[in-house]
């Protein structure tokens, strides 16, 4: 009998664990080499985990929604061409500390202690940044796991763990206690936060809690932009080019042109060192709506792409996001994000920052509206832009000037060609 124990491989970039989002196989299935076994959601991306060997699945370890650590047993397999595996291999002799499911592997014999506290890397980092001791926080997650919500509750209530080396005579924390469950009502449906939806929730809480947001909104007369886009698309169609320009490539180019005058918007904030890191590359995140939730795909070195190349890359990334096929490098390293709901964009909104970026631009509905031009009321193609910023490093006058610089290029889009490197 040739039994193979497949463990969760290294997921890269210091990722230590991930959530088992979906199993693609079940016990007894025959699998081919490189066939996908499961999907695992990390703090950075959803990745598919393939098997390196062909064979039969004897046992899957862990349920959907469980956390699995890197190098933890995922699947026990009987390799192709080997004799059938015994039905109860664990009963032969003394147990040799068989690997368990992610939930079992993470479960301590007693509640989390000062030496072994269950928490994700992001939760640990968040607690460390605020001087909290996780051992002093009551975990509300499975097996006493301390969640980011627990850390937030401790901080908001001012009753979290005392800082290390600090003598605290205060009463036991109250705010860090698990929230009381909501009472059930007739016809209720409970939907667990899992996978991408859960990661979105965690990231939004962190962003709103750690970054003081403010927003600036202004309207754009996009009449000339509409005319230019229509003209260029007609020329592309006549040339037999399959490329179709949306408004996003123009907005990306206008944003980059403005960033060159206001470089502090093309930046990340380093929480550990409390430094603004002004990036040398223009890696623009594009928010994409998927069936699982909003995903930000990153167009790398967007300043080096033509309008046509930008259109193709944005389209490719959008399709990959909806098909769950984005690579890790297509989800990380963003320096600024643009989010647009197209014709569903409404009048304006105040987007939440994509941590650790310090700015996010919301693009809203483009429609014909009355406007005053040369003291005359005329019908123009109008839309609104809303910029959210991290007020720790970006002041209101800088944000306003940045938006007006973008508007300058969108209202006179021919200037974009002069600004392109």
Automatic annotation (TrEMBL):
Keywords: Acyltransferase, Lipoyl, Transferase. Gene3D superfamilies: 2.40.50.100, Chloramphenicol acetyltransferase-like domain, E3-binding domain. Its EC number is 2.3.1.-. CDD domains: lipoyl_domain. The keyword Membrane does not apply. GO terms for cellular component: cytoplasm. Residues 3-78 form the Lipoyl-binding domain. Residues 168-183 have a biased composition (Low complexity). Its cofactor is (R)-lipoate. Residues 83-114, 157-183 are annotated as: Disordered. The keyword S-adenosyl-L-methionine does not apply. InterPro entries: 2-oxoA_DH_lipoyl-BS (IPR003016), 2-oxoacid_DH_actylTfrase (IPR001078), 2-oxoacid_DH_E2_comp (IPR050743), Biotin_lipoyl (IPR000089), CAT-like_dom_sf (IPR023213), E3-bd_dom_sf (IPR036625), PSBD (IPR004167), Single_hybrid_motif (IPR011053). Pfam families: 2-oxoacid_dh (PF00198), Biotin_lipoyl (PF00364), E3_binding (PF02817). SUPFAM superfamilies: CoA-dependent acyltransferases, Peripheral subunit-binding domain of 2-oxo acid dehydrogenase complex, Single hybrid motif. One of its GO terms (molecular function) is lipoic acid binding. It is an enzyme of class 2 (transferase). Residues 118-155 form the Peripheral subunit-binding (PSBD) domain. Forms a 24-polypeptide structural core with octahedral symmetry. Belongs to the 2-oxoacid dehydrogenase family. This is Dihydrolipoamide acetyltransferase component of pyruvate dehydrogenase complex. It comes from Corallococcus aberystwythensis. The lineage of its organism: Bacteria, Pseudomonadati, Myxococcota, Myxococcia, Myxococcales.
């Amino acid at each position: 009998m040739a039994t193979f124990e497949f463990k969760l491989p290294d997921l890269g970039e210091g990722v230590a664990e991930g959530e088992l989002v979906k199993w693609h196989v079940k016990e007894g299935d025959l699998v081919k080499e490189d066939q996908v076994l499961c999907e695992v959601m990390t703090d950075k991306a959803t990745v598919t985990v393939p098997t390196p060997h062909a064979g039969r699945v004897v046992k899957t370890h862990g349920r959907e929604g469980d956390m699995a650590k890197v190098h933890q047993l995922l699947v026990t397999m009987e390799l192709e061409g080997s004799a059938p595996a015994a039905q109860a291999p664990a009963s032969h002799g003394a147990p040799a500390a068989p690997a368990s499911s992610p939930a079992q592997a993470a479960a301590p014999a007693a509640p989390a202690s000062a030496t072994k506290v269950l928490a994700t890397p992001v939760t640990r980092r968040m607690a460390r940044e605020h001087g909290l001791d996780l051992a002093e926080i009551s975990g509300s997650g499975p097996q006493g796991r301390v969640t980011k919500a627990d850390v937030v509750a401790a901080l908001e209530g001012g009753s979290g763990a005392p800082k290390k080396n600090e003598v605290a005579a205060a009463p036991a924390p109250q705010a860090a206690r698990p929230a009381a469950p909501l009472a059930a009502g007739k016809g209720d449906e409970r939907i667990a936060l899992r996978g991408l939806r859960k990661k979105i929730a965690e990231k939004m809480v962190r962003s709103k809690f750690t970054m003081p947001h403010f927003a600036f909104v202004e309207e754009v007369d996009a009449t000339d932009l509409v005319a230019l886009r229509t003209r260029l698309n007609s020329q592309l169609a006549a040339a037999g080019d399959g490329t179709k320009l949306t408004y996003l490539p123009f907005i990306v180019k206008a944003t980059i042109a403005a960033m060159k005058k206001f470089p502090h918007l093309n930046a990340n904030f380093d929480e550990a060192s409390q430094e603004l890191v002004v990036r040398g590359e223009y890696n623009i995140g594009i928010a994409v709506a998927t069936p699982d939730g909003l995903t930000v795909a990153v167009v790398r070195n967007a300043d080096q792409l033509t309008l046509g190349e930008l259109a193709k890359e944005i389209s490719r990334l959008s399709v990959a996001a909806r098909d769950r096929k984005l690579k890790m490098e297509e989800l990380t390293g963003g320096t600024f994000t643009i989010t647009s709901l197209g014709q569903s964009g409404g009048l304006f909104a105040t987007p939440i920052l994509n941590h650790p970026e310090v700015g996010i631009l919301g693009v809203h509905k483009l429609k014909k509206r009355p406007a005053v031009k040369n003291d005359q009321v005329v019908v123009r193609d109008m839309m609104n832009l809303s910029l959210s910023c991290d007020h720790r490093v970006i002041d209101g006058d800088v944000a306003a000037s940045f938006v007006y610089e973008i508007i300058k290029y969108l209202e006179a889009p021919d200037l974009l060609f002069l600004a392109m490197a």
